[in-house]
Amino acid sequence: MKKFLFFAVIALLMASCAPKKVQLIDAANFTKEVDGKQVSLFTMHNGDVTMQVTNYGGRVVALWTPDKRGSYEDITLGYDHIDKYLDHPGERYLGAVVGRCANRIAHGSFVLNDTVYSLVKNDGDNTLHGGALGTDNVVWDVVESNDSILVMHVVLPDGQDGFPGNLDITMTYTLTHDNAFRIDYQATTDKPTLCNLSNHTFFNLRGEGKDILRHQLKINSKWALSVDSTLIPDGKFISVKKTPFNFLELHAIGDSIKANDIQLVYGHGYDHNWIISRMTPDKVEYAATLYEPKSRRQVDVYTDQMGLQFYSGNFFEGHVQGKWGPHRYRGAVALETQNFPDAINQENFSKKPVLNPGETYTHTCIYQFSVAPRP
Fold first, then answer.
1. What are phi and psi of 291, to 5 degrees?
2. CA neighbor of 75 nearest in space, from 91, 51, 99
């Protein structure tokens, strides 16, 4: 009996040390008709990355990458069933594309060509990520899908959430052979409108159910945007030097997140936009790195956009269960490439998120996954 127990313990220890494999969510969990359109779950694989996406809000549901041992982990927060996204118990924007104007618009209002537009307010007195429906609460049409490419299309109707114009959006998700997740947006309109799309995937490089304070972050930026108590830019620019916002060199997110700084009080942590240091306007360039020392998983972010919103999961409460664990307080990081928040209302921001008929909005964001060399 003792010998049997000995070998049983050895077997359990060996099993616990074995590299973890990808565990796919059953596509049947996402087969449902919503607002008269079919929702599905799509599985993509290329290189060392496996990703599952639903066309409800273009959401990244699962994203598996290897660590230093070749052991896989799902590094994004989400749910294992479409019903939990439809009747979400916690964070609304898990893995979704957000727009038609990402981030906040002050007082839910803006002026365009001498016309005042009043929007749906869904963040106190402000409009956040497009309002009540946005791009995340609608079903996208799937134009093309295979192992490495998923092309989705939607038309946001004139007047949705208060925005003018029929906004015609095509979004392409690509997994590349060198382990990158690339997002390409294109949009046109039949009336002058706002367009500022972004992706709201929540990353935890250790896996769902853990905090991110030991994750290390680098942002290619010397300046961040100062905000008021409602997280609307106040027109000031923060030099990151000698502040908790200095991520010019890789260091732990938890190093300064509890610092006595009014900006961190307003954001309940980090929920701010950094101005990316660029060599060439409108070209895809390096923006940021997220690194987790224990697994040595790393994500490098590249984009052609001006801003990067870094959000440190300050409003997760821990009571909501995800696919593999609870959505803990500060249990994930969002790195959203975009134009600046409330840019339409800010005199100091030169680039407005305005799209006119005859123009095409474009935006590229790349999340490059790797295992970092041993320090």
1. -135, 140
2. 51
Residues whose CB falls within 8 Å of the CB of residue 248, separated by 6 or more in sequence, listed in order = 218, 219, 220, 221, 222, 240
- Name the active-site residue from 200, 215, 272, 363: 200
Q: How many domains does the chain have?
A: 1
Q: Is 4 part of a structural domain of the chain?
A: no
> pLDDT tens, 236-278?
999 999 999 999 999 999 999 999 999 999 999 999 999 999 9
Residue 38 lies in a domain: yes
- Does residue 336 have an active-site annotation? yes
Asked whether residue 286 is domain-assigned, the answer is: yes
Nearest one of 298, 295, 270 to 286, comparing CA atoms: 298
Selected catalytic residue, list 73, 91, 336, 363 = 336
| 71 closest CA partner among 48, 47, 46 | 48
Residue 14 domain flag = no
Task: List, in order, residues 6 or more apart from 208 with CB less than 8 Å away.
Answer: 74, 76, 77, 78, 322, 323, 324, 325, 326, 327, 331
Q: pTM of the prediction?
A: 0.94
Residue 187 domain boundaries: 19-371
* pLDDT tens sequence across 195-250: 999 999 999 999 998 999 999 999 999 999 999 999 999 999 999 999 999 999 99
What does the alpha-carbon distance between residue 214 and residue 38 come to, in Å, rounded to a whole number? 40
CATH number at residue 56: 2.70.98.10
Is residue 268 part of the annotated active site? The answer reads no
